[in-house]
Specification:
Number of strands: 0
Pfam families: PHO4
Subcellular location: Membrane
Radius of gyration: 22 Å
Membrane topology: Multi-pass membrane protein
Largest sheet: none
Distance between the termini: 59 Å
Number of helices: 14
Helix content: 55-70%
InterPro entries: Phos_transporter
Main location: membrane
């Protein structure tokens, strides 16, 4: 076996940088509802999530195998430069969506980056299209729908079981349940997302002849990937936490518990069978489902629409950036150096732009914070789904009803 070269070392460091961005980009998956309902203080929540992400990284390597020997053909002449270009595409997209406060998929950014760079540098034959469809695209569509349906049913069941209890009495118990379910989501996130970086590093080691094809990730790869995603998680992606916790729907403790429990179940099941799904999409679907499950709840479909659009754009956008990076990287050492400089420059520019309207742990729950979403009236979709919902537990908050203008029939607000 060959020694690790300078280029492979650069790829490994870049992969760990991506893992770090994955951590702070996806902190919201586990902790947004827990923070928004006050079950945990923001800093306490991200610290717990970071620790459990690290533990989850050691529980399985099935998803890592999907990355290192699944979507990309290891024997097709994949070089470290290609992997480096793919990682740059994923990092840039992660940072752009973080700046916009959109919970897009870090996983799909990584897949798109690797696929785009591989197509440009090697060709379409080096991409295992059947694996991409079966283990990436189908889970991308199915997972948020399944998680959303599970959260809707769980929320309705929760309110039905507690319909004779006062909401204030049950809130404390649900907040305790939220902490437990958030811990489970964090653990599940580590079993899925941390492994993606392990798979990329293993792919780079295979491409450089350091390890044999189809090898499991070495222990030092597992440890470094776990530490990187834990560090990013502790940093806290406050912009995205605000969007999921406050901008998508108004979450009550019972809803938060139902959403997180449903999301954790879907993620753990997918990790067990090697589906490299998007934990972001699963958790977002769960939160929307929980919003629909409570009578009187409102899903802000304008925010949800922006999220779905980002989901659809992630694979091609990261692929385009990575494809351009691959064209440069294929030119030799100067091309790799140029890609590295451009990646650092773009990342620094995004960070500087984020300082203009910072969102931190101090203002993440404030409705007047820079990225907070405005209130949105109940749309026709929400109203139709809520029509069959059971009555909520406890007294409902009074809802202001605006009388229609004379001569006009009342109409549901547009979604």
């Amino acid at each position: 076996m060959e020694h690790i070269t300078l280029l492979i070392g650069i790829v490994i460091v870049t992969a760990l940088v991506f893992d770090f961005t994955n951590g702070f980009h996806d902190t919201a998956n586990a902790m947004a509802t827990t923070i928004s309902t006050g079950a945990l203080k923001p800093k306490t929540a991200v610290a717990m999530s970071a620790a459990l992400n690290l533990v989850g990284a050691f529980l399985s390597v099935e998803v890592a195998k999907t990355i290192s020997g699944g979507i990309i053909d290891e024997s097709a002449g994949i070089r470290p430069e290609v992997i480096f270009a793919g990682l740059i595409g994923a990092i840039v997209w992660n940072l752009l969506t973080w700046l916009a406060g959109l919970p897009s998929s870090s996983s799909h950014a990584l897949f798109g980056g690797l696929i785009g760079a591989t197509i440009v540098s090697v060709g379409f034959d080096a991409v295992n299209a059947d694996k991409v469809v079966m283990k990436v695209l189908i889970p991308a569509v199915a997972a948020p729908l399944v998680a959303g349906l599970a959260a809707t049913l769980a929320t309705r069941l929760t309110y039905r079981l507690a319909k004779n209890r006062d909401e204030k009495e049950t809130a404390k118990g649900y907040r305790t349940g939220q902490i437990a379910s958030a811990a489970l989501v964090s653990l599940a996130h580590g079993t899925n997302d941390a492994q993606k970086t392990m798979g990329v590093i293993t792919l780079a080691l295979v491409a450089g002849g350091v390890v044999a094809p189809h090898s499991d990730p070495p222990m030092w790869v597992i440890v470094s990937a776990g530490l990187a995603i834990a560090a990013g998680t502790y940093l806290g992606g406050w912009r995205i936490i605000q969007t999921l916790g406050k901008g998508l729907t108004d979450i009550k403790p019972a809803q938060g518990f139902a959403a997180q429990t449903g999301a954790a179940t879907v993620i753990l099941a997918s990790s067990h069978i090697g589906f490299a799904l998007s934990t972001t999409q699963v958790c977002s679907g769960s939160i929307m489902g929980a919003g629909l499950g409570r009578k009187g709840g409102v899903v802000r479909w304008s925010t949800a629409g922006r999220m779905v659009m980002a989901w659809c754009l992630t694979l091609p956008a990261a692929g385009l950036v990575a494809g351009g990076a691959a064209l440069l990287a294929d030119q030799g050492d100067w091309g790799v150096a140029t890609v590295a400089v451009l990646g650092v420059a773009v990342s620094a520019g995004i960070w500087l732009a984020s300082r203009r309207k910072p969102v931190t742990h101090d203002n993440v729950n404030e409705t007047g914070a820079p990225e907070a979403a405005p209130a949105e009236p109940t749309g026709v979709v929400t109203a139709a789904l809520q029509a069959v919902a059971p009555p909520p537990a406890g007294p409902l908050s009074p809802v202001a009803v605006v009388a229609p203008e004379a001569g006009r029939a009342p109409a549901a607000a547009a979604s």
